[in-house]
Amino acid sequence: MPYNKNKQQAFQAAQQAFVQLEDAYQQLDEQSPDYGHQTKRVHEELNEAEQIIEKAYVVATEHQKHQLDIYANELMNVKYELFK
Questions:
Q1: 81 Cβ partners below 8 Å, 6+ apart?
Q2: pLDDT of 73 over the 70 cut
Q3: Three-state SS for 52?
């Protein structure tokens, strides 16, 4: 049973990292004097989310892997938007 618990914890950590990235990304405001700081935070959240999702993918169930794939695609979209 601990193995299943680890799967669930890893998946929940990935979900949380993704939500934190979304929050940081949605708060980006090019007109804000804090835009540089906001951008740095998004980069940090992006890097952290990528690492956590990668680790979760190793122990994920098939259903969780599907959701992690969706998160990974969204991360790529954020990355594209940041670096275009």
A1: 25
A2: yes
A3: helix
